[in-house]
Write a structure and sequence with these properties.
The structure is a homodimer of 246-residue chains. With 246 residues, chain A is of the alpha+beta class. Chain A contains five helices and ten strands. In chain A, strands 1, 2, 3, 4, 5, 6, 7, 8, 9 and 10 form a ten-stranded mixed sheet that branches. The two termini of chain A are 22 Å apart.
Chain lengths: 246, 246
């Protein structure tokens, strides 16, 4: 069986998230259906680096599937896209080693959360940004986010009620910067807990508006208590930028 | 009567263009309705710098209206936006001289046309770009567009069948550049004919793919013949960036 790796962009607002579920438009199901058509009926399982929630965008999601198809690899992205809604685009298709697994062999993921910090927000980019009109200090936010770098138990930044064995994760890089009216929060880690980045963004907003000090981020982290962190902010600001493998 | 100038951003894909028309969602009508609500019933006429077609975006459209309202000017944008769909955002409201007229006193308009020149196109930005996968030479396109600078009769770049007294316009600046997979065409002029920028973009695409030489743009301009120019390309790539007044 060939093992095919896809790099995928999608517009999260048009779907109820990545995961396949009955009667709800989802990204996984749409791509599996397209692959079934172009392979003449193969029912594949498309494994992503991780699920993304409803409304979350991706510029560089990675997923793989196994196929008996003999279609040349350079035609694969065109063929799949020809059967997909334009809100999903396969940007690249590559043939990979049989050991490649989008989830298990993933080394790093990078997510970006974008806040529109203008008075009125954007009309055109409203599904790619979270509008927060109170003036934020991006330098304080950048100071605060640095406390998250390293291996930590991120229980304070995990949605309550979610079951996952361990809430220990490694963040390799974290930064916040301003680009005009936009504030970007970018995190690279070995994996993220459910809602973790949206809760981190909500907490950093409190830092940016001066409600809490940057050093408080460390205290929140150490408390291992969800109630100490900020709100879970809108999925529309979140984008999976890319996934790295060995 | 106070004269109020609005600077407006909108997401063109959600409307049948700027102009008010019955039974079709349009930007002018939506904003006039919002103003009627916040002024407690005034039926104003909102005059734009120019109409934009269905699907065309704006980051900096300008429009003005006259009102008896005594609402403080700094509250006006918030109040209007509170009554509008999020696909339209008033970015700024200013009180201006009674002689100010969005259309008649306009000096310069800047439009940008954006081509996505990647193989598969973008999912997230599909309504802000025109996808053209054939590799384009942006340097040749930039050479070609320079022939349009100055005062010319742009009849070759006017939609056939449109009645306008004169097709003479002045282009002050015109340039084409690449930003990764994107190619931007930006034109600043004293006004543009119906479909003019979309036809210019279609012609420059022919230059970029090598179908015609850059110098051919001058020959097309001088021919004053619509059939000599390129296709009218998609409105989704077009954005009104800003309007300048004295």
């Amino acid at each position: 069986m060939r093992n095919i790796k896809l790099t995928i962009e999608y517009d999260g607002k048009d779907f109820n998230g990545w995961q396949k579920q009955p009667n709800k438009l989802n990204i996984q199901g749409e791509i599996e259906r397209a692959i079934e058509i172009i392979t003449g009926g193969e029912k594949v399982e498309l494994i992503a680096s991780g699920r993304t929630d409803a409304g979350v965008n991706a510029l560089g999601q990675v997923a793989n599937f196994r196929t008996e198809s003999t279609m040349p690899i350079e035609k694969m992205a065109y063929a799949i896209n020809s059967q997909l809604k334009k809100a999903i685009r396969v940007q690249k298709a590559e043939e990979v080693d049989e050991k490649f697994h989008s989830r298990y062999t993933c080394k790093k993921k990078t997510y970006r959360y974008t806040i529109n910090n203008s008075e009125q927000g954007s009309a055109i980019f409203r599904y790619m940004q979270y509008h927060y009109p109170v003036k934020l200090d991006e330098n304080k936010m950048n100071e605060g986010v640095k406390y998250l770098i390293g291996e930590h138990d991120f229980k304070s930044f995990k949605a309550s009620g979610t079951s996952s064995k361990s809430s220990v994760r490694v963040i390799y890089d974290a930064k916040v910067w301003r680009e005009g009216d936009l504030i970007h929060i970018e995190l690279t880690g070995n994996g993220f807990l459910y809602n973790m980045i949206r809760i981190i963004a909500g907490t950093l907003i409190e830092v940016g508006e001066g409600a809490i000090e940057p050093a408080e981020v460390q205290a929140i982290l150490e408390a291992k208590d969800r109630s100490r962190a900020g709100k879970t902010v809108s999925p529309s600001g979140l984008c999976l930028m890319g996934v790295e493998y060995e």
